[in-house]
Protein backbone atom coordinates (compact mmCIF):
# COMPACT_ATOMS: atom_id res chain seq x y z
CA UNK A 1 0.00 0.00 0.00
CA UNK A 2 1.65 3.23 -1.15
CA UNK A 3 1.32 6.38 0.92
CA UNK A 4 -0.49 9.13 -0.98
CA UNK A 5 1.22 12.45 -0.26
CA UNK A 6 1.21 15.80 -2.01
CA UNK A 7 3.46 18.78 -1.43
CA UNK A 8 0.43 20.87 -0.41
CA UNK A 9 -0.52 18.32 2.24
CA UNK A 10 3.01 18.33 3.69
CA UNK A 11 3.01 22.15 3.63
CA UNK A 12 -0.20 22.07 5.70
CA UNK A 13 1.45 19.84 8.32
CA UNK A 14 4.39 22.21 8.79
CA UNK A 15 4.29 24.42 11.93
CA UNK A 16 5.44 27.50 9.99
CA UNK A 17 6.97 28.73 6.73
CA UNK A 18 10.49 28.58 8.16
CA UNK A 19 10.13 24.86 8.83
CA UNK A 20 9.14 24.29 5.18
CA UNK A 21 12.14 26.25 3.94
CA UNK A 22 14.56 24.48 6.28
CA UNK A 23 13.17 21.02 5.40
CA UNK A 24 13.57 21.61 1.67
CA UNK A 25 17.06 22.97 2.35
CA UNK A 26 18.02 19.64 3.94
CA UNK A 27 17.03 17.84 0.72
CA UNK A 28 18.97 20.28 -1.46
CA UNK A 29 22.06 19.74 0.73
CA UNK A 30 21.64 15.91 0.59
CA UNK A 31 21.37 15.68 4.36
CA UNK A 32 19.02 12.67 4.23
CA UNK A 33 21.43 9.74 4.36
CA UNK A 34 18.92 6.89 4.69
CA UNK A 35 15.40 6.57 3.29
CA UNK A 36 13.20 3.58 4.16
CA UNK A 37 9.54 2.56 4.21
CA UNK A 38 7.78 -0.48 5.63
CA UNK A 39 6.38 -3.12 3.33
CA UNK A 40 2.76 -2.10 4.09
CA UNK A 41 3.60 1.53 3.26
CA UNK A 42 2.39 2.97 6.57
CA UNK A 43 5.77 4.22 7.85
CA UNK A 44 8.52 6.39 6.37
CA UNK A 45 11.75 6.42 8.33
CA UNK A 46 15.42 7.16 7.92
CA UNK A 47 18.33 9.26 9.11
CA UNK A 48 19.29 12.87 8.58
CA UNK A 49 22.70 14.43 9.13
CA UNK A 50 22.61 17.18 11.73
CA UNK A 51 25.01 19.44 13.57
CA UNK A 52 26.16 16.66 15.92
CA UNK A 53 28.35 13.61 15.33
CA UNK A 54 25.40 11.21 15.11
CA UNK A 55 22.61 11.34 12.55
CA UNK A 56 19.06 12.09 13.68
CA UNK A 57 16.66 9.15 13.42
CA UNK A 58 13.36 10.44 12.05
CA UNK A 59 10.09 8.83 11.02
CA UNK A 60 6.54 9.65 9.95
CA UNK A 61 3.86 7.12 10.90
CA UNK A 62 0.61 6.88 8.88
CA UNK A 63 -0.86 3.85 10.71
CA UNK A 64 -3.83 5.88 12.08
CA UNK A 65 -5.63 6.76 8.86
CA UNK A 66 -8.26 8.97 10.55
CA UNK A 67 -5.65 11.25 12.13
CA UNK A 68 -2.68 13.32 11.05
CA UNK A 69 0.54 11.29 10.74
CA UNK A 70 2.71 10.94 13.84
CA UNK A 71 6.20 12.35 13.40
CA UNK A 72 9.11 11.24 15.59
CA UNK A 73 12.72 12.43 15.64
CA UNK A 74 15.75 12.16 17.93
CA UNK A 75 16.57 15.85 17.38
CA UNK A 76 16.01 18.34 20.24
CA UNK A 77 13.46 20.44 18.33
CA UNK A 78 10.11 21.11 20.03
CA UNK A 79 8.35 21.64 16.70
CA UNK A 80 6.11 18.91 15.36
CA UNK A 81 6.75 17.85 12.70
CA UNK A 82 10.39 18.96 12.90
CA UNK A 83 12.32 19.91 9.77
CA UNK A 84 13.86 16.41 9.55
CA UNK A 85 10.45 14.66 9.49
CA UNK A 86 9.18 17.21 6.98
CA UNK A 87 12.25 16.61 4.80
CA UNK A 88 11.46 12.89 4.88
CA UNK A 89 7.97 13.55 3.49
CA UNK A 90 9.17 16.08 0.89
CA UNK A 91 11.71 13.51 -0.29
CA UNK A 92 8.93 10.96 -0.73
CA UNK A 93 6.77 13.49 -2.62
CA UNK A 94 9.66 14.36 -4.95
CA UNK A 95 10.05 10.71 -5.95
CA UNK A 96 13.29 9.83 -4.16
CA UNK A 97 13.90 6.10 -3.65
CA UNK A 98 12.76 4.60 -0.33
CA UNK A 99 14.00 1.06 0.25
CA UNK A 100 11.71 -1.46 1.97
CA UNK A 101 12.85 -2.29 5.51
CA UNK A 102 11.56 -3.82 8.73
CA UNK A 103 9.87 -1.44 11.15
CA UNK A 104 12.30 -0.26 13.88
CA UNK A 105 11.73 -1.94 17.24
CA UNK A 106 11.16 1.28 19.17
CA UNK A 107 8.40 2.38 16.76
CA UNK A 108 6.80 -1.07 16.88
CA UNK A 109 6.68 -0.78 20.69
CA UNK A 110 5.09 2.66 20.49
CA UNK A 111 2.50 1.40 18.02
CA UNK A 112 1.65 -1.47 20.37
CA UNK A 113 1.09 0.95 23.27
CA UNK A 114 -1.19 3.13 21.14
CA UNK A 115 -3.15 0.07 20.00
CA UNK A 116 -3.58 -1.09 23.61
CA UNK A 117 -4.75 2.39 24.64
CA UNK A 118 -7.29 2.48 21.81
CA UNK A 119 -8.58 -0.99 22.67
CA UNK A 120 -9.09 0.13 26.26
CA UNK A 121 -10.91 3.27 25.10
CA UNK A 122 -13.13 1.18 22.80
CA UNK A 123 -13.97 -1.17 25.67
CA UNK A 124 -14.96 1.77 27.87
CA UNK A 125 -17.04 3.26 25.05
CA UNK A 126 -18.97 0.03 24.58
CA UNK A 127 -19.61 -0.43 28.32
CA UNK A 128 -22.16 2.15 29.60
CA UNK A 129 -21.14 1.52 33.24
CA UNK A 130 -17.46 2.21 32.59
CA UNK A 131 -18.27 5.15 30.35
CA UNK A 132 -20.45 6.78 33.00
CA UNK A 133 -17.80 6.22 35.68
CA UNK A 134 -15.13 7.73 33.44
CA UNK A 135 -17.24 10.79 32.68
CA UNK A 136 -17.99 11.49 36.31
CA UNK A 137 -15.32 13.92 37.36
CA UNK A 138 -14.47 14.24 41.03
CA UNK A 139 -14.61 17.87 42.12
CA UNK A 140 -12.90 19.14 45.25
CA UNK A 141 -15.78 21.33 46.36
CA UNK A 142 -13.92 22.96 49.23
CA UNK A 143 -11.11 24.02 46.91
CA UNK A 144 -13.62 25.24 44.32
CA UNK A 145 -15.47 27.31 46.94
CA UNK A 146 -12.19 28.93 47.98
CA UNK A 147 -11.45 29.74 44.36
CA UNK A 148 -14.90 31.32 43.91
CA UNK A 149 -14.41 33.42 47.05
CA UNK A 150 -11.04 34.53 45.72
CA UNK A 151 -12.60 35.49 42.39
CA UNK A 152 -15.26 37.54 44.21
CA UNK A 153 -12.52 39.37 46.12
CA UNK A 154 -10.78 40.06 42.81
CA UNK A 155 -13.98 41.50 41.31
CA UNK A 156 -14.29 43.82 44.33
CA UNK A 157 -10.76 45.09 43.77
CA UNK A 158 -11.40 45.50 40.04
CA UNK A 159 -14.60 47.45 40.70
CA UNK A 160 -12.89 49.79 43.17
CA UNK A 161 -10.08 50.48 40.69
CA UNK A 162 -12.29 51.10 37.63
CA UNK A 163 -14.59 53.39 39.63
CA UNK A 164 -11.55 55.48 40.60
CA UNK A 165 -10.65 55.78 36.90
CA UNK A 166 -14.17 56.97 36.08
CA UNK A 167 -14.31 59.46 38.97
CA UNK A 168 -10.97 61.01 38.04
CA UNK A 169 -11.90 61.22 34.35
CA UNK A 170 -10.11 59.86 31.31
CA UNK A 171 -8.45 63.22 30.64
CA UNK A 172 -6.32 62.71 33.78
CA UNK A 173 -4.90 59.42 32.55
CA UNK A 174 -1.15 59.59 32.01
CA UNK A 175 1.75 57.14 31.91
CA UNK A 176 1.53 56.65 35.69
CA UNK A 177 -2.14 55.66 35.53
CA UNK A 178 -1.46 53.31 32.60
CA UNK A 179 1.24 51.68 34.72
CA UNK A 180 -1.32 51.18 37.51
CA UNK A 181 -3.68 49.52 35.02
CA UNK A 182 -0.88 47.17 33.99
CA UNK A 183 -0.18 46.37 37.65
CA UNK A 184 -3.84 45.41 38.07
CA UNK A 185 -3.50 43.16 35.00
CA UNK A 186 -0.92 41.11 36.92
CA UNK A 187 -2.99 41.28 40.10
CA UNK A 188 -6.08 39.81 38.43
CA UNK A 189 -4.05 36.70 37.65
CA UNK A 190 -3.74 36.07 41.38
CA UNK A 191 -7.55 36.08 41.57
CA UNK A 192 -8.07 33.61 38.67
CA UNK A 193 -9.71 36.35 36.54
CA UNK A 194 -8.06 35.90 33.14
CA UNK A 195 -10.93 37.62 31.31
CA UNK A 196 -10.39 40.72 33.44
CA UNK A 197 -6.68 40.57 32.67
CA UNK A 198 -7.33 40.63 28.94
CA UNK A 199 -9.78 43.54 29.09
CA UNK A 200 -7.58 45.63 31.40
CA UNK A 201 -4.68 45.04 29.05
CA UNK A 202 -6.81 46.32 26.17
CA UNK A 203 -7.83 49.35 28.23
CA UNK A 204 -4.16 50.10 28.92
CA UNK A 205 -3.47 49.92 25.19
CA UNK A 206 -6.26 52.39 24.39
CA UNK A 207 -5.07 54.89 27.02
CA UNK A 208 -1.33 54.54 26.45
CA UNK A 209 0.24 57.97 25.72
CA UNK A 210 1.96 56.53 22.63
CA UNK A 211 -1.42 55.56 21.09
CA UNK A 212 -3.03 59.04 21.04
CA UNK A 213 -5.47 58.32 23.92
CA UNK A 214 -7.69 61.36 23.15
CA UNK A 215 -8.71 59.70 19.87
CA UNK A 216 -9.58 56.51 21.78
CA UNK A 217 -11.77 57.97 24.55
CA UNK A 218 -15.00 56.66 23.00
CA UNK A 219 -13.60 53.14 22.84
CA UNK A 220 -12.07 53.45 26.32
CA UNK A 221 -15.55 54.25 27.67
CA UNK A 222 -16.88 51.19 25.84
CA UNK A 223 -14.09 49.12 27.38
CA UNK A 224 -14.96 50.37 30.88
CA UNK A 225 -18.60 49.50 30.19
CA UNK A 226 -17.55 45.96 29.27
CA UNK A 227 -15.45 45.62 32.44
CA UNK A 228 -18.39 46.90 34.51
CA UNK A 229 -20.65 44.27 32.91
CA UNK A 230 -18.07 41.58 33.67
CA UNK A 231 -17.96 42.67 37.32
CA UNK A 232 -21.75 42.80 37.67
CA UNK A 233 -22.59 39.58 35.83
CA UNK A 234 -19.56 37.75 37.15
CA UNK A 235 -20.41 38.57 40.76
CA UNK A 236 -24.05 37.50 40.33
CA UNK A 237 -22.96 34.24 38.71
CA UNK A 238 -20.35 33.40 41.37
CA UNK A 239 -22.71 34.18 44.25
CA UNK A 240 -25.39 31.99 42.67
CA UNK A 241 -22.84 29.24 42.15
CA UNK A 242 -21.90 29.27 45.83
CA UNK A 243 -25.55 28.60 46.68
CA UNK A 244 -25.63 25.55 44.39
CA UNK A 245 -24.71 22.35 46.29
CA UNK A 246 -23.19 20.93 43.11
CA UNK A 247 -21.27 24.11 42.20
CA UNK A 248 -22.29 23.37 38.61
CA UNK A 249 -20.80 25.15 35.60
CA UNK A 250 -22.99 27.40 33.44
CA UNK A 251 -22.95 25.59 30.10
CA UNK A 252 -25.38 27.97 28.38
CA UNK A 253 -23.48 31.29 28.43
CA UNK A 254 -19.90 32.50 28.08
CA UNK A 255 -19.62 33.74 31.68
CA UNK A 256 -17.42 30.80 32.76
CA UNK A 257 -14.81 31.69 30.14
CA UNK A 258 -14.98 35.36 31.09
CA UNK A 259 -14.16 34.30 34.65
CA UNK A 260 -11.19 32.22 33.58
CA UNK A 261 -12.59 28.71 33.07
CA UNK A 262 -11.01 26.70 30.24
CA UNK A 263 -13.56 24.20 29.00
CA UNK A 264 -12.36 20.60 28.68
CA UNK A 265 -13.83 18.38 25.99
CA UNK A 266 -14.95 15.95 28.70
CA UNK A 267 -16.94 18.77 30.32
CA UNK A 268 -18.59 19.71 27.02
CA UNK A 269 -19.55 16.06 26.60
CA UNK A 270 -20.89 15.94 30.17
CA UNK A 271 -23.16 18.89 29.44
CA UNK A 272 -24.17 17.33 26.10
CA UNK A 273 -22.61 20.11 24.05
CA UNK A 274 -21.66 17.82 21.19
CA UNK A 275 -23.11 16.33 18.04
CA UNK A 276 -22.12 13.17 16.21
CA UNK A 277 -23.11 13.79 12.59
CA UNK A 278 -22.15 17.39 11.84
CA UNK A 279 -20.62 18.35 8.49
CA UNK A 280 -18.78 21.65 8.20
CA UNK A 281 -17.58 23.69 5.26
CA UNK A 282 -15.03 26.42 5.91
CA UNK A 283 -16.08 29.78 4.48
CA UNK A 284 -13.17 31.94 5.65
CA UNK A 285 -9.90 31.70 7.54
CA UNK A 286 -7.40 34.22 8.88
CA UNK A 287 -4.73 34.64 11.55
CA UNK A 288 -4.14 37.79 13.55
CA UNK A 289 -2.25 39.21 16.51
CA UNK A 290 -4.26 39.87 19.70
CA UNK A 291 -2.13 42.02 22.08
CA UNK A 292 -4.90 41.89 24.70
CA UNK A 293 -4.57 38.12 24.97
CA UNK A 294 -0.82 38.26 24.18
CA UNK A 295 -1.49 35.52 21.65
CA UNK A 296 -1.74 34.94 17.93
CA UNK A 297 -5.20 33.72 16.94
CA UNK A 298 -6.06 31.34 14.09
CA UNK A 299 -9.71 31.99 13.25
CA UNK A 300 -11.89 29.91 10.95
CA UNK A 301 -15.54 30.51 10.04
CA UNK A 302 -17.51 27.37 9.15
CA UNK A 303 -21.07 26.72 8.07
CA UNK A 304 -22.66 23.64 9.61
CA UNK A 305 -24.41 22.12 6.61
CA UNK A 306 -28.15 21.74 6.99
CA UNK A 307 -28.46 24.77 9.28
CA UNK A 308 -27.89 28.53 9.41
CA UNK A 309 -25.24 28.06 12.09
CA UNK A 310 -21.90 29.77 11.49
CA UNK A 311 -19.33 28.17 13.80
CA UNK A 312 -15.83 29.35 14.67
CA UNK A 313 -12.61 27.44 15.23
CA UNK A 314 -10.11 29.28 17.40
CA UNK A 315 -6.53 28.27 18.04
CA UNK A 316 -4.58 30.45 20.46
CA UNK A 317 -0.79 30.57 20.10
CA UNK A 318 0.78 32.39 23.09
CA UNK A 319 3.64 34.70 22.14
CA UNK A 320 6.16 32.69 24.19
CA UNK A 321 5.20 29.35 22.63
CA UNK A 322 4.09 30.44 19.14
CA UNK A 323 7.13 29.03 17.34
CA UNK A 324 6.38 25.58 18.77
CA UNK A 325 2.70 25.51 17.70
CA UNK A 326 1.76 24.84 14.11
CA UNK A 327 -0.29 27.67 12.64
CA UNK A 328 -3.59 26.45 11.22
CA UNK A 329 -4.48 27.09 7.59
CA UNK A 330 -7.30 27.29 5.07
CA UNK A 331 -9.37 24.07 4.86
CA UNK A 332 -10.86 23.26 1.46
CA UNK A 333 -12.74 19.98 2.09
CA UNK A 334 -15.87 19.08 4.02
CA UNK A 335 -14.94 18.35 7.64
CA UNK A 336 -16.84 15.52 9.35
CA UNK A 337 -15.81 15.67 13.04
CA UNK A 338 -16.35 12.66 15.27
CA UNK A 339 -17.80 14.21 17.35
CA UNK A 340 -18.19 18.00 17.08
CA UNK A 341 -17.83 19.76 20.46
CA UNK A 342 -19.67 23.09 20.74
CA UNK A 343 -18.63 25.64 23.38
CA UNK A 344 -21.17 27.80 25.18
CA UNK A 345 -21.55 30.91 23.08
CA UNK A 346 -23.69 33.28 21.09
CA UNK A 347 -24.34 33.49 17.36
CA UNK A 348 -21.00 31.94 16.35
CA UNK A 349 -19.94 29.56 19.12
CA UNK A 350 -16.49 28.04 19.12
CA UNK A 351 -16.20 24.40 18.05
CA UNK A 352 -13.49 21.76 18.38
CA UNK A 353 -12.88 18.14 17.55
CA UNK A 354 -10.31 15.46 18.29
CA UNK A 355 -10.55 13.60 15.01
CA UNK A 356 -12.39 13.92 11.74
CA UNK A 357 -12.87 12.42 8.33
CA UNK A 358 -13.13 14.51 5.19
CA UNK A 359 -14.81 14.41 1.82
CA UNK A 360 -14.66 16.56 -1.28
CA UNK A 361 -16.92 19.60 -1.63
CA UNK A 362 -19.73 18.96 -4.11
CA UNK A 363 -21.86 21.31 -6.18
CA UNK A 364 -24.78 20.47 -3.88
CA UNK A 365 -22.74 21.61 -0.85
CA UNK A 366 -22.08 25.00 -2.45
CA UNK A 367 -25.73 25.32 -3.44
CA UNK A 368 -26.80 24.59 0.15
CA UNK A 369 -24.77 27.60 1.34
CA UNK A 370 -27.12 29.86 -0.63
CA UNK A 371 -30.24 28.20 0.76
CA UNK A 372 -28.99 28.53 4.35
CA UNK A 373 -28.28 32.28 4.09
CA UNK A 374 -30.69 34.98 5.28
CA UNK A 375 -32.73 36.31 2.34
CA UNK A 376 -33.66 39.55 4.10
CA UNK A 377 -31.11 42.00 5.47
CA UNK A 378 -33.71 43.16 8.02
CA UNK A 379 -34.06 39.65 9.41
CA UNK A 380 -30.31 39.11 9.61
CA UNK A 381 -29.56 42.51 11.14
CA UNK A 382 -32.17 41.88 13.82
CA UNK A 383 -30.27 38.74 14.86
CA UNK A 384 -26.97 40.66 14.92
CA UNK A 385 -28.38 43.55 16.97
CA UNK A 386 -29.89 41.17 19.52
CA UNK A 387 -26.43 39.80 20.17
CA UNK A 388 -24.74 43.20 20.33
CA UNK A 389 -27.12 44.28 23.12
CA UNK A 390 -25.14 42.04 25.46
CA UNK A 391 -21.82 43.74 26.36
CA UNK A 392 -20.23 40.34 27.09
CA UNK A 393 -21.22 38.87 23.72
CA UNK A 394 -18.80 38.55 20.82
CA UNK A 395 -18.68 42.09 19.33
CA UNK A 396 -17.98 40.73 15.85
CA UNK A 397 -20.89 38.42 14.89
CA UNK A 398 -20.78 36.73 11.49
CA UNK A 399 -23.74 35.95 9.25
CA UNK A 400 -24.55 34.68 5.75
CA UNK A 401 -26.71 37.03 3.66
CA UNK A 402 -28.10 36.73 0.15
CA UNK A 403 -27.01 39.82 -1.80
CA UNK A 404 -28.60 41.03 -5.03
CA UNK A 405 -25.81 43.48 -5.90
CA UNK A 406 -22.73 45.46 -4.79
CA UNK A 407 -22.42 49.10 -5.80
CA UNK A 408 -20.85 52.44 -4.85
CA UNK A 409 -23.13 55.02 -3.28
CA UNK A 410 -23.06 58.75 -4.07
CA UNK A 411 -20.53 59.32 -1.29
CA UNK A 412 -18.32 56.58 -2.83
CA UNK A 413 -19.05 54.06 -0.10
CA UNK A 414 -19.28 50.39 -1.02
CA UNK A 415 -22.78 49.07 -0.37
CA UNK A 416 -24.61 45.76 -0.65
CA UNK A 417 -28.32 45.52 -1.38
CA UNK A 418 -30.84 42.71 -0.90
CA UNK A 419 -33.82 41.78 -3.08
CA UNK A 420 -36.04 44.13 -1.05
CA UNK A 421 -33.79 47.13 -1.65
CA UNK A 422 -32.36 47.36 1.88
CA UNK A 423 -28.66 48.26 2.03
CA UNK A 424 -25.65 47.76 4.31
CA UNK A 425 -22.47 49.83 4.09
CA UNK A 426 -19.21 47.92 3.79
CA UNK A 427 -15.91 48.76 5.46
CA UNK A 428 -13.19 46.85 7.26
CA UNK A 429 -13.93 46.28 10.95
CA UNK A 430 -11.48 47.08 13.77
CA UNK A 431 -10.63 43.42 14.46
CA UNK A 432 -7.17 43.10 12.83
CA UNK A 433 -8.12 40.28 10.47
CA UNK A 434 -6.89 42.07 7.36
CA UNK A 435 -8.50 44.10 4.61
CA UNK A 436 -11.08 42.68 2.22
CA UNK A 437 -13.42 45.53 1.29
CA UNK A 438 -10.70 47.21 -0.75
CA UNK A 439 -10.49 44.16 -3.03
CA UNK A 440 -14.09 44.40 -4.23
CA UNK A 441 -13.62 47.12 -6.92
CA UNK A 442 -11.11 44.84 -8.66
CA UNK A 443 -13.54 41.93 -9.01
CA UNK A 444 -15.58 41.39 -12.20
CA UNK A 445 -19.05 42.87 -11.81
CA UNK A 446 -20.74 39.60 -12.77
CA UNK A 447 -19.23 37.94 -9.67
CA UNK A 448 -20.92 40.52 -7.43
CA UNK A 449 -24.57 40.00 -8.40
CA UNK A 450 -27.06 37.54 -6.91
CA UNK A 451 -24.50 35.97 -4.59
CA UNK A 452 -24.27 34.90 -0.95
CA UNK A 453 -21.82 36.77 1.27
CA UNK A 454 -20.28 35.91 4.63
CA UNK A 455 -20.13 39.16 6.60
CA UNK A 456 -18.71 40.01 10.00
CA UNK A 457 -20.43 42.94 11.75
CA UNK A 458 -19.35 45.62 14.22
CA UNK A 459 -21.12 48.48 15.96
CA UNK A 460 -18.90 51.54 15.59
CA UNK A 461 -19.02 53.51 18.82
CA UNK A 462 -17.71 56.77 17.36
CA UNK A 463 -20.28 56.91 14.50
CA UNK A 464 -23.10 54.82 16.05
CA UNK A 465 -23.33 52.83 12.80
CA UNK A 466 -23.56 49.11 12.23
CA UNK A 467 -20.90 48.22 9.66
CA UNK A 468 -19.99 44.97 7.94
CA UNK A 469 -16.89 43.51 6.34
CA UNK A 470 -17.22 40.82 3.65
CA UNK A 471 -15.08 37.74 4.26
CA UNK A 472 -16.20 35.47 1.40
CA UNK A 473 -18.44 35.58 -1.65
CA UNK A 474 -20.24 32.39 -2.66
CA UNK A 475 -21.41 32.20 -6.27
CA UNK A 476 -21.92 29.56 -8.93
CA UNK A 477 -18.17 28.99 -9.17
CA UNK A 478 -17.72 28.18 -5.50
CA UNK A 479 -16.31 30.09 -2.52
CA UNK A 480 -14.29 33.22 -3.23
CA UNK A 481 -12.25 33.94 -0.09
CA UNK A 482 -11.34 37.58 0.44
CA UNK A 483 -8.95 37.00 3.37
CA UNK A 484 -5.62 35.19 3.19
From TrEMBL:
Keywords: Metal-binding, Zinc, Zinc-finger
Organism superkingdom: Bacteria
Cross-referenced InterPro entries: Znf_SWIM
GO molecular function, one term: zinc ion binding
Domain SWIM-type: 58-93
PROSITE patterns in UniProt: ZF_SWIM (PS50966)
Record's protein name: SWIM zinc finger domain-containing protein
Organism taxonomic ancestry: Bacteria, Bacillati, Bacillota, Bacilli, Bacillales
Amino acid sequence: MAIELTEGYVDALAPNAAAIKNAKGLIQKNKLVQLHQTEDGTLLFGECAGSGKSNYACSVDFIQTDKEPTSRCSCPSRQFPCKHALALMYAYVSGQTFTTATIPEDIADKRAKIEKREEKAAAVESDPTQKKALKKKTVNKNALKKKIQTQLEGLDILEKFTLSLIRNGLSTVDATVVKRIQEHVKQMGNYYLTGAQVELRRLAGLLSPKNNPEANYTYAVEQLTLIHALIRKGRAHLQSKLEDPELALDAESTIEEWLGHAWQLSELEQYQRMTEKAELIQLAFTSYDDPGRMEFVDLGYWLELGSQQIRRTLQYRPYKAAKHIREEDTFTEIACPKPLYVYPGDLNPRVRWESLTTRAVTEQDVQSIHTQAYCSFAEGIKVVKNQLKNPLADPYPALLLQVSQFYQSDDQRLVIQDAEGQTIGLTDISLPIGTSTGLLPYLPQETLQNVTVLLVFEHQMDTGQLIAQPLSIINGNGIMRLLY
